[in-house]
Predict the structure.
Amino acid sequence: MDMDTWFSWYKTILKEFGFSKKDDEESAFMLSKLLEDKTILTPEKISIKKNVVVFGAGPSIKKNIEELKKIDISKFTIIAADGATTALLEENIVPDIIITDLDGKIDDILQADKLGSVLVVHAHGDNQDKIEKYVPLIKNIMGSTQSTPLKNVYNFGGFTDGDRCVFLAIELKARLIILAGMDFGDIVTNYSRPELGKSVDNADEIKKLKLDYAKRLIEWAAAHENVKIVNISHGEILKGIRQVKVGEINLNS
């Protein structure tokens, strides 16, 4: 996604949610400064396979993992949206890349880093405390922002962890993106919200709106980017994105 297009989306998001661009930029600046003393990754240093699975933390995730384990999952680069990391580790699957604003189960995110996952840590207005606390502990790291890019901090487009996974995969030249655990419905899981206290619950209105934007952004990517996106999740149907079963996926198309 080119930056002019993204900032058009971003302006609307700031207005609708009442977010502060200044707070986003301050958080990104903090992240950039923390990364100055680390050996950090750049997009050029991250290689992926042409076939990617993006895992969200929706209700479909465990079912989708079981479905994908029936085929050769080594043929894919696995990109996890934040809390989806926990569900994957429970199945002994280490994500290749994790997009995180550090509000998933942090012990699992740090464990994945130790196991070799690349962590793309996202700075936004209300996670400065987590950035300051956890970024110094992370080894395999690249920074991201939804505002103006800085040294060490990139903007590939995207608003939620899930749709940012898609836009990162596009930036890294994926040819096929499979959406798993990306339900975009009214239910949240304890993978997405570790503090939930139960496995699933109804999403609040802000979460519903965030998921709606994530859905719309992925639909935009399917229509405008040079990539094929298919969906094996069991939630809402996405405009312009084919709903498939795992056995129908053609990795050579």
The chain has a mean pLDDT of 94.
